[in-house]
Amino acid sequence: MISKTILFCALALLPSAPQGVPPDQVPSKIHGFEGKSPARLSLTGSTVKGTASYQLADKTVQFLWEWEAAGPRPIQHSTQVEAVPFYPTEICQVGPGRVAVAGKRRSKTIIELWEFGSPVIPPAIISNTQQYIYPEINVPVASKTVLYEEAMVGRDIVSVMLHNPAPPASATASLFVQFFDSKDLYSLTYTADGSSTDPGVASCVCVRKSQPDPTIPVIPALSTHFETRWSAKHSAYGYVYVFVHPEVPALVLYDSNLDGILDSPGYLQLDDAAWESGNWGDLTTYLAAY
Question: Would you give the end-to-end CA distance of the chain in angstroms?
Fold first, then answer.
């Protein structure tokens, strides 16, 4: 069970007014870009699973893999560290075998789609003293595709990314992305054209605003700086997108008919009592978690 008040570090609420694109510097840690809950990972056609996190100042992404091996200790763990040429600020799974990694490179905000190859699980080695030695595994990153790279006020620094399990027809990947400076939520969709020379087409469209707007639905609660987030499939609300801050009601956006488009108004604000009574923090109560 995930408790809003015990397991998460309290963060100060930050102002939501759009700021200018900052210069080439390390994004400040007070923004909460480090310390988020790890993203869950699964691989296509493999029992290997894992979690993904990142180190902002070190410019690295870390994967902690788990798999089963022969011998007296069947559950094994392995750590894989990948360097990136930007300051990472968010990571999430985009379906089996893929992750999106967002960060800041000079004045630009960047989002990459990584696709993993097949893991090779080495057999356990039995030493001369009959001790089992378990080699670590490495899951190759088969490709990296830039989905987004721009310097734009209102889209400066990715603070939240959430996997949309129902991308539009023919789309390769779909994400909901919240940018730090505006706190607005965008739908980022990528469609590959199948060519090795053309990276495909990505679109980034604002779907929810944090401040009053005459044309786009507004969710004032998006102005909170959320640290913990996940998407899942709920028995009553369909696809849900959960934002948690320990000091304010949790925010849940939902897509009840599973079409990949947020319902309108399509959100809940859950105080501590509603959070606990609905078991929203227990991932085992969901039909699936992403």
Answer: 17
